[in-house]
Design goal:
Blueprint: H1 3-8, H2 12-38, H3 41-63, H4 68-93, H5 98-115, H6 117-120, H7 128-153, H8 161-185, H9 190-227, H10 237-249, E1 255-261, H11 264-271, H12 273-291, E2 295-301, E3 304-309, H13 316-330, E4 335-341, H14 348-364, E5 370-372, H15 375-382
Parallel strand pairs: 4-5
Antiparallel strand pairs: 1-3, 1-4, 2-3
């Protein structure tokens, strides 16, 4: 069968509906999996709406363009599924209130009432063409109102508002071409029907991208929360130590810089914890900026922050001094800094401990200074 005949011939509706069903099955598998793992209302609404859309297109395949009861049910499901889909997209970014459910069920109720025109005008005594025009026109025109309301009420609350608006525009064009084909030109312009179906496929593709992007956002946010410190945004102790151990296991000659804010307890006691948190954030920002291109930084706990230097061309001592100087100039506090370079056979805990001992040396010999770890200093500390 030639491709043009497949797109424009009598089986074109079945072909397009089959393509849409394939996309819907992929989205349904994603939303069901997410609902089972997260139990979020948005995934339930999307799963339900996708099932309704699938039912609609299966009815269209069975009706094969002949209208009748199957065509009537397909039209009703079209309106219901579109309303539920947009509720699900709203719920991806917002908590649902009673107001949203009232609006949703009111919109579905109006769609049902308008769909009854199919039954009312089914007994209309006019010509078959007139009956066809009057039966389903109410629901088709109602879809334009729903599109407008979604644009006004949902767009501002969706994170991907540009992509969401694009989707609504695609559906508007689909609906416009569908109405023109069915109520203005009839079957004389099959290209209008094919174009309408293509825009509908593009609409569902945009929905897939919105859903996929949102899932990526949520997974990224969950991952970031698991590896970063909530207050400073630095890597947390578990992640930092894991990365350090990884580098050491592969024989990378890394260095660790250990910083501790001077007189931090006194700052908290005299000026309050808000001032202490502010100091932590400023020091963390400086460490992250200076280490961005040469390694990674993390917060071990309290006022203790560390940097792992992975760039072989970066000198840990120079970086430690740059950290100390910038903290003194910008953060309103000072830091004592120690650093140590990895030697063969040293694990992550030992390397951090060495840098900690060098920091302790700096703190006990005047504070606001940098000390390098040496075996002689270790012996003095142990002695």
């Amino acid at each position: 069968m030639p491709f043009t005949e497949l797109l424009l011939g009598p089986l074109s509706g079945i072909y397009f509906s089959s393509l849409i069903l394939m996309m819907l099955i992929l989205m349904l598998a994603m939303t069901v999996r997410l609902f089972l793992s997260r139990r979020k209302k948005a995934y339930f609404s999307l799963s339900l709406s996708l099932l309704v859309v699938m039912a609609q297109h299966m009815l269209l395949i069975l009706a094969d363009g002949s209208g009748g009861t199957l065509g009537y049910l397909a039209l009703l499901l079209k309106a219901v599924s579109f309303i539920l889909l947009n509720l699900g997209i709203y719920q991806l970014y917002n908590a649902s209130r009673i107001r949203q459910y009232v609006l949703t069920y009111t919109a579905i109720g109006l769609a049902f009432l308008l769909s009854l025109l199919h039954v009312v005008f089914g007994g209309y005594g006019g010509s078959p063409e007139q009956v066809l025009l009057l039966q389903d026109l109410g629901v088709e025109l109602y879809m334009f109102l729903v599109l407008f309301l979604c644009h006004q009420w949902i767009t501002p609350f969706v994170g991907q508002w540009g992509r969401y608006q694009t989707g609504l525009t695609l559906y508007f064009i689909h609906q416009l071409l569908l109405v023109a084909h069915r109520y203005l030109f009839g079957s004389d312009y099959p290209l209008l029907s094919a174009a309408s179906s293509c825009f509908l496929i593009l609409y569902y593709a945009s929905l897939f991208l919105i859903l996929f992007e949102r899932v990526v956002e949520l997974l990224q946010a969950t991952y970031n929360r698991s590896i970063t410190d909530a207050l400073t945004g630095m890597y947390n102790r578990r992640f930092f130590m894991g990365r350090l151990e990884q580098y050491l296991n592969h024989g990378v000659p890394v260095s660790v810089i250990f910083t501790d804010i001077d007189n931090f307890k006194k700052l908290n006691d005299t000026q309050g914890h808000e001032k202490g948190d502010e100091a932590l954030k400023k020091v963390a920002r400086i460490l992250m900026e200076l280490s961005e291109e040469v390694g990674i930084s993390g917060r071990l706990g309290g006022e203790e922050m560390v940097v792992m230097v992975t760039d072989p061309d970066a000198h840990a001592g120079e970086l430690a001094e740059a950290i100390r100087a910038r903290v003194e100039a910008e953060a309103g506090v000072t830091v004592s800094v120690g650093y140590s370079k990895a030697k063969k056979g040293v694990n992550a805990d030992s390397l951090v401990k060495q840098a900690d001992e060098a920091m302790y040396q700096a703190k006990t010999t005047g504070k606001n200074k940098v000390c390098k770890f040496t075996r002689q200093k270790q012996a003095l500390v142990n002695g």
